[in-house]
Amino acid sequence: MKQYRLEQADPNVFAVHQVIYSNSDIEMWYDWNTRIEDTKFTDQCYWIMYDDDRIGGVVKINDTVMFPFITPHFLIDKRCGGDY
Description:
The protein is 32% helix and 32% strand. By secondary structure, the chain is of the alpha+beta class.
């Protein structure tokens, strides 16, 4: 049986994924480096794992979950009848 879990993420790598997949406005007056720095406000970032597959991420501080995102490959596989 496949299971979901959270796995601690490297904040630098997580920030890139969060900026790309969060579906938030990428305010065009920012350059890429500034946008990444704005995203790295905490080291409490986690990947959402489905067995060994990274399918998204969240920021979790204490009992609060914020800024969730799902990566497109997971959404596409799910719609096409993948085994997720």
